[in-house]
Design a protein that fits this description.
alpha/beta; Rossmann fold; seven-stranded parallel sheet; 9 strands; about 15% strand
């Protein structure tokens, strides 16, 4: 990668996107930050532009995504580091979610980053360098009540990322999945929660409790454990192999937050118990010699 790496980051209006853009700019890198509604964040735009960055209006679901990406790439002539950060959560009981809501979730969280990668990857391949960072979630590791489609979109993105990681690693291109736990971002307040009534049969179940908790979080706010600035700094360090990540082995997945690592432990335990508990069955299915 040449000096002064060039970043292209989606979803910079809140959370990790804007913070990561500022960190990269302060490190002397070049950054193209984007959001769907730049008019909502004039102070952030001012900060980014004052540091020499570019801020573009960019709808990741636009039918003209190719044209928009060509225009963005033309600013500096290439994109070295792609960060797919834009997304949102659709929350609610699975059976109450409409087809339109489900498709919209997949369009933003899955098809949009996939399309962006498909457009930017050929140039990275020709240069035999580049980094693709997909911001996922612990929901991409473990699906919990009320988050069926949100987890579905993240699992799909992680599956593509894992296969892509194996395909392009020999070409000098890195793929990183970032799995944040609960961070102090507007995740809950910006989530789309189904307004359809929960069927009576779910009353008192973990699903009903989770929906109530998420609504309460959106309305009152909750002191979540994750610090966005610290998380964004770790992402930057991991991408650049510097600072806190200088001597850390590079893996496909980068978990963030102690609560996120706790979900890993739960998932790993569930998978092991599942495999061990069905051993007699799966061992019986091979063809006879």
């Amino acid at each position: 990668m040449e000096s002064a790496p060039i970043w292209f980051i989606t979803g910079c209006s809140t959370g990790f996107g804007g913070t990561l853009a500022l960190i990269a700019l302060r490190a002397g890198h070049r950054v193209i930050a984007t959001s769907r509604n730049p008019s909502k964040t004039p102070d952030l735009i001012s900060q980014i532009e004052s540091l020499g960055g570019k801020f573009l209006k960019f709808d990741v679901c636009s039918p003209e995504i190719g044209k928009l990406l060509d225009e963005a790439t033309a600013i500096y002539g290439r994109i070295d580091i792609l960060v797919n950060n834009a997304g949102y959560a659709l929350l609610g009981a699975f059976e109450t979610l409409s087809e339109d809501e489900c498709r919209a979730q997949m369009e933003t969280n899955f098809f949009a980053p996939v399309n962006i990668i498909r457009h930017i990857l050929p140039a990275m391949r020709k240069r035999k360098s580049g980094v693709i960072v997909n911001i996922s979630s612990t929901a991409g590791l473990e699906a919990r009540e009320s988050r069926s489609m949100y987890s579905g979109s993240k699992w799909a993105l992680e599956a593509v990322s894992e296969a892509l990681y194996k395909e392009v690693k020999p070409l000098g291109i890195r793929v990183i999945i970032v799995q944040p736990g609960a961070f102090q971002t507007p995740f809950a307040s910006s989530a789309n929660t189904s307004d359809r009534a929960l069927p009576d049969e779910y009353e008192g179940t973990p699903l009903a409790q989770m929906i109530a908790y998420m609504k309460d979080m959106a309305e009152k706010g909750v002191n979540l454990p994750g610090d966005v600035k610290k998380g964004a700094q770790v992402i930057f360090d991991y991408v650049m192999k510097t600072g806190s990540a200088e001597n850390i082995e590079q893996f496909l997945r980068l978990p963030l937050g102690k609560d996120g690592s706790a979900r890993w432990e739960i998932k790993l335990d569930e998978l092991r118990r599942n495999l061990d508990g069905t051993e007699a069955l799966w061992k019986s299915t091979d063809a006879d010699p």
